[in-house]
Specification:
- The chain has 417 residues and is of the alpha/beta class.
- It contains ten helices and twelve strands.
- The strands form three sheets. The protein has an eight-stranded mixed beta sheet with strand order 1-4-7-5-8-11-9-10, sandwiched between helices. It has a two-stranded antiparallel sheet with strand order 2-3.
- The longest helix has 28 residues.
- The protein starts with a helix and ends with a strand.
- The relative contact order is 0.19.
- Bound molecules: zinc ion.
């Protein structure tokens, strides 16, 4: 009963946000001739996404190997991302700086032993909940982070990934599209650019990083205006414990909405309206089979998983944001549906979830599905560009269509003639 009330409230709220954006677009289009009335600006923007472009950005990121934090290849990838964002016209690229010192090894919990055989996670007596709070079901295969260089058969890639990480100063890159009427409010669209496991981090999280970059490209086009601001950010140090996004929240939450300098009309940190994280977008081949093998093809019934965290202070607002994306998916995504779930966990939206509406967008549910082995490339040497087919990349493109359509509506995007 309680959850029904909550869902109804969330639907009303997200419908209200949508109507607001539609009204703003209608006002913006009013002086135009009637032939413009038929053109839906959100559809026009979604159509500017393109499978080959999305693939090319992922491919570009894989040139820097696994982009592990605290290495030259990670720093070179940040420089490359910045050059792309500038070439898109996403002005004001900036870097957040922080210092990363790993916890002493002695105080870290030992990694769980990785078995080799599939088990039945949902069997009688399976009381242990997955990360994020969901209940695991069905066949579960072992997961873990590969730390063995020799597990990478590609000698060039092994060499590219060979420089070890060192503690110290870190940077992460973002750029901002300033809103026309509400420059002091923004949605944050993020993905993490660091990876590990001795592969190319093509899916985790080249796929999410490329999605964020493609949205920056489309929405930075000179003919696009938004009422509210949009920030596109590529987190670092996600894989070590969300340190980059945590540093951002620590450094900037108290600066929200402050005009600086006073009277300038400039807001270095617009008030956060929502944070949308993208982490692993390509692979929904279903549950592992009883013998531990996986389907080779993207399953036709694949779905995009939008998760909020039910045990967070901003759960109601986060759920509302999740439904806004679900609605955008229904209307604008070409091939695959989206599903909303309550167990967001283990990604850069987590440090935001008690402060602002925060959701993650993924290929699978993080806790019960990825945690059960649904993505066999996860943190493995096989997470390379060549492991994915066009069906996988198209699935990721559908997530890009979903978030683009949602933020275009939420930020009040319109086309300047
Ligand atoms: Zn990830």
């Amino acid at each position: 009963m309680r959850s029904k009330v909550r869902i109804a409230a969330a639907l009303a709220l997200s419908a209200g946000l949508g109507a607001h954006a539609v009204a703003q677009r209608a006002r913006g289009a009013a002086p135009q001739a009637s032939m413009d009335a038929a053109a839906d600006p959100v559809k026009v923007l979604v159509d500017r996404l393109d499978l080959e472009r999305y693939k090319a950005v992922i491919k570009g990121l894989t040139a820097f190997g696994d982009r592990r934090q605290g290495t030259d290849r990670n720093r070179a990838a940040i420089d490359w991302i910045e050059a792309q964002l500038k070439s898109y016209g996403c002005g004001n690229t900036e870097r957040l700086k922080y210092d990363y010192q790993p916890a002493p090894a002695a105080t870290r919990a030992p990694a769980p032993a990785i078995g080799t055989a599939p088990t039945n996670a949902g069997g009688r007596g399976a009381a242990t909940l997955a990360a994020g709070g969901g209940r695991p079901r069905g066949v579960r295969t072992p997961t873990g982070v590969n730390t063995d260089p020799n597990a990478q058969p590609d000698l060039n890639l092994r060499a590219l990934n060979s420089q070890p990480t060192t503690p110290g100063p870190r940077e992460e890159i973002y750029c901002t599209k300033i809103g026309v009427t509400r420059p002091d409010e923004m949605y944050i669209v993020g993905g993490h650019m660091d990876g590990h496991g001795w592969g190319e981090a093509a899916n985790d999280d080249g796929s999410g990083t490329a999605l964020v970059m493609e949205l920056a490209r489309v929405l930075s086009s000179p003919d696009v205006q938004t009422e509210r601001s949009l920030r596109f950010i590529l987190w670092n140090n996600e894989e070590t414990g969300l340190n980059g996004s945590g540093a951002y929240v620590d450094q900037r939450r108290d600066r929200q909405g402050k005009e600086d300098p006073p009277g300038s009309g400039r807001y270095p940190e617009p008030k956060w309206l929502g944070m949308i994280q993208h982490d692993m977008m390509l692979f929904d081949h279903g549950m592992p089979r009883a013998d531990g093998t996986m389907s080779k093809e993207q399953r036709p019934e694949a779905d995009i998983n939008i998760e909020f965290q039910v045990n967070s202070k901003m759960a109601a607002q986060s759920q509302s944001l999740a439904w806004a994306l679900e609605g955008a998916n229904e209307k604008y995504a070409t091939d695959y549906p989206a599903l909303v779930g309550p167990h967001m966990t283990n990604t850069d939206s987590t440090p935001f979830m008690d402060v602002v509406a925060a959701i993650s967008v993924r290929e699978n549910e993080r806790g019960t599905q990825i945690g059960n082995g649904w993505d066999p490339q996860w943190h493995q040497p096989t997470d390379v560009y060549a492991s994915y087919s066009d069906r996988d990349f198209r699935f990721g493109l559908n997530a890009a269509q979903t978030t683009l359509a949602a933020v275009a509506q939420l930020a009040g995007a319109r086309l300047r003639k």
